[in-house]
Write the structure tokens for this entry.
Amino acid sequence: MSDQFDVVVIGAGPAGYVAAIRAAQLGLNTACVDKWINAEGKPSLGGTCLNVGCIPSKALLESSEKFHEAQEGLAAHGIKLSAAPEVDVPAMIARKDDIVSKLTGGIAQLFKSNGVTSIAGQAKLLGGRKVEVTDADGNVQLLQAENVIIATGSIPVDIPVAPANGDTIVDSSGALEFTEIPKRLGVIGAGVIGLELGSVWRRLGSKVVLLEAQETFMPMADQKVAKDFLRQLKGQGMDVRLGARVIKSSQTKKGVKVTYEDSKGEHTSEFDKLIVAVGRRPVTQALLSSEADILLDERSFIHVDDQCRTNQPGIFAIGDVVRGPMLAHKGSEEGVMVAEIIAGRQRHMNYDAIPSVVYTHPEVAWVGKTEEELKAAGEKYRVGQFPFAASGRAMAMNANQGMVRVIADETTDQVLGVHICGPQAGELIAQAVIAMEMQATAEDLALTVFAHPTLSEALHEAALAVHGEAIHMAAPRKKR
């Protein structure tokens, strides 16, 4: 005996729960299976993002930035504190947990209001679009679906030289649960996750060292922006060591000792805590039976086409478990696309206009091509750049470091990429995404009226600068 559904979604993270809600909105009988169990031993929707990823990390980033501003930023505004600010880490963690609880509970309510059947348990895809679900008590339920959407997400990559022990060596999830501020914090990996987690504890007082094996800092970002970002991080006291390959770690009485190699030889550093943030891998183990016959690539990602169809009819895969950037918003949009395709609608997704954001201080955000990518491809382009140092609003905010860069095609003037390092970059990048989605040119942005005084004027000026027409920046000297 099996339960019949039009759509069964496996995974209730940002990709899965959005897919389930949209499918239900379109009149499809939808179930969503998820295995997440929270610290209280109860099922919790939202996946990694809401439970131990995007949301809790941003809550701590915001709290740590408030503390840092109280310590060092308020004086510039003429605000004096009668006593030095103090950090209550347990209260900070409790606030984070409360936000997570409200949001995960909110998804449960959204499921209820949209008529999505929520099923807690471990799912396994069988042949014939059947899904076997085993709950926490070992009870097995069989679901029959016309369509299956796999949205099982990703988990942190483990490295043998620094195995997580839940105490002195932790992954990104464990780094959100520290009950006190480590005096010395090591982070293996200077990618987005490592930078954000390192920033949280640096602002709260930790001495932070980031060990990055690659020689290039943030190779996925525009390198002029990345270099400016690195300069600002170092100015904040972040110790970023590039070309540092960790070769072993060992427990000590006070924490953990890490040995790494770089161009100058072998070195050791000791830390109270060590965060391993070297990337994430797709969750496909124990998910697929041999009868399901789903094609995986060499890195265990599920192989899909541009509309997230697998090699089996009626079975789709979305989010971190497929190709492309591991971003919550990318997975969510794939979920909407797939739900609409199942409902018989025509839907595509523009993978060239997916924004990326690093929620440090300053924030870094980008969309589209980098200058390095265009050079490598031999494409002709123009670049307009504008510094926040010339932005009245940024100066008023005491946040006038960084820049905006707009890259446009030399012939058509179409915007190919926008890269921002500075205040509220994660919000500003949305304007660039809309422009690129509408195939706007740099001139289109230049002719648009931006409110004054706002941070977004920096985007306007950068677009003007593409053709050497920026108003609030000295014109470059003409070559004789």
